[in-house]
Design a protein that fits this description.
The protein is built from five helices and six strands, in the order βαββαβαβαβα. It has 169 residues and is of the alpha/beta class. The chain has a six-stranded mixed beta sheet with strand order 2-3-1-4-5-6, sandwiched between helices. The longest helix has 17 residues. The chain starts with a strand and ends with a helix. The structure holds guanosine-5'-triphosphate (GTP) and magnesium ion. The site of guanosine-5'-triphosphate (GTP) has 24 residues, from helix 1. Keywords: Nucleotide-binding. This is Ras and ef-hand domain-containing protein. It comes from Anaeramoeba flamelloides.
Length: 169
């Protein structure tokens, strides 16, 4: 029995890739077509069950807008896990995601678990191929998932797998 498990995790990625929408889907099981861009960062607490134990996730949802970039180390400091999000319809956001992973590996917690997420799979106009992201993930020893915050597809699994990876550390 391990009571009071408490994990800080952080979401990083370009503006409008859907970070806040993924957290909203996880915590409220809802979707909003026009969320405001996040300012700075905010924390959402979500309890999830891993096997026998209840884990408290402290999820830091950060702002992707460039003007907030200098703040992000405050949010990923001490994070045991990170979810790096891109939008499958936006190749620039994929490039940014790979940059985030390198930055985290360099400046984040030593053995933070990182998950790469391609969001908005409900949209038709995919420009980033899954195989491209999967290859990058394999090479960098990460897990890769695709999600839709709109339909909910794949969303819970991302948080669940990340919590599980952290619990195995
Ligand atoms: P910042 O806070 O600026 O960093 O952006 P963000 O990454 O938090 O993006 P946000 O969740 O605010 O979503 C941006 C827009 O994309 C919103 O209008 C959402 O409705 C939309 N969106 C988010 N996820 C999805 C998705 O899975 N599918 C579709 N079709 N739209 C999505
Ligand atoms: Mg946001």
């Amino acid at each position: 029995d391990q009571p009071n498990l408490d994990y800080k995790i952080v979401l990083l990625g370009d503006s409008s890739v859907g970070k806040s929408s993924l957290v909203f889907r996880l915590s409220k099981n809802r979707f909003c077509e026009n969320l405001e861009p996040t300012i700075g960062g905010l924390c959402v607490i979500q309890n999830i069950e891993i096997g026998e134990s209840e884990v408290k996730l402290k999820i830091w949802d950060t702002a992707g807008q460039e003007r907030f970039h200098s703040l992000t180390p405050l949010y990923y400091r001490g994070a045991k896990g990170a979810i790096i999000v891109y939008d499958i319809t936006n190749s620039e956001s994929y490039k940014r995601a790979t940059d985030w992973i390198l930055e985290l590996r360099e400046n984040g917690e030593q053995d933070a678990k990182i998950v790469l997420v391609g969001n908005k799979i409900d949209l038709e106009r995919k420009v980033v191929e899954d195989t491209t992201a999967q290859k990058f993930a394999d090479k960098n020893d990460l897990h890769f998932f695709t999600t839709s915050a709109k339909t909910g597809e794949g969303v819970n699994q991302v948080f669940f797998v990340l919590a599980q990876l952290i619990s195995q550390m």
